[in-house]
Specification:
five-stranded parallel β-sheet, 45% helix, Rossmann fold, binds guanosine-5'-monophosphate, alpha/beta, four-stranded mixed β-sheet
Length: 216
């Protein structure tokens, strides 16, 4: 433990980043998100607020903050959201919480949001945002994964497939695109992106004093 604390103290100061993963549902984004959060304690999930009812096994405050329409309306009115959007007949939004201050302190955040939310976050805070789009290897594979999940009715799966096409059409708006043929390989690529983006010069706010001392 002591070693990791020392390491953190020695590390150069860095601005946190907003790491956005998008994909059509079923392309593996949730699995990749979970793997990333487990493997990398330096990144925290930005838990969204939604009016969608919880699926079996989903926990309030962990997967989403599940709220009713009136609460969501109030949050919109009070300007509590960074961004919000309609998805599959429900509303989803990113609460502002303490993200802005935490970014300054070097905290990274993971966002599992759709293309609409991604556009809004990019407009608000382009320099802190890194976007990754995960593509399924094929639409047939996507349908199979949605069916295997057995969480949704046939109608919901059909509408998700239709939305998948819409979501995929936004692939070119993303900084990085990874095809999820194999979940381990996809995860490894996503981690590489995150690691490289953390080293971006403009995020490493501690570099100026470091180099000054180096050259003194
Ligand atoms: P699901 O209902 O399957 O959990 O999510 C449906 C879609 O809503 C996914 O594409 C997910 O990325 C998106 N989503 C989840 N939270 C947010 C959010 O806070 N903002 C936006 N714009 N999309 C979200």
């Amino acid at each position: 433990m002591a070693e990791s604390t020392d390491k953190q103290e020695d590390a150069l100061a860095r601005r946190g980043l907003m790491f956005i993963l998008s994909s059509p549902s079923g392309a593996g984004k949730t699995t990749i998100s979970r793997m990333l959060l487990e493997a990398d304690p330096a990144i925290k999930l930005s838990v969204s607020v939604t009016t969608r009812p919880p699926r079996p096994g989903e926990k309030d405050g962990v997967d989403y903050y599940f709220v009713d329409d009136a609460t969501f309306d109030r949050m919109v009115e009070e300007d509590d959201f960074y961004e919000w959007a309609h998805v599959f007949g429900h509303r989803y939004g990113t609460p502002k919480g303490r993200i802005r201050n935490a970014l300054k302190e070097g905290q990274d955040f993971l966002f599992d949001i759709d293309w609409q939310g991604t556009q809004q976050l990019k407009q608000k805070d382009d320099q802190d945002v890194v976007t990754v789009f995960i593509l399924p290897p094929s639409l047939a594979e996507l349908r199979q994964r949605l069916e295997a999940r057995a969480q949704d009715s046939a109608e919901v799966i059909d509408s998700r497939m239709e939305r998948a096409r819409g979501e995929i059409s936004h692939w070119a708006e993303y900084d990085y695109v990874v095809i999820n043929d194999d979940v381990q390989a996809c995860f490894a690529k996503v981690r590489e992106v995150l690691d490289a983006e953390r080293m971006r010069r403009t995020r490493q706010t501690g570099l100026i004093p470091f180099v000054r001392e180096l050259m003194a």
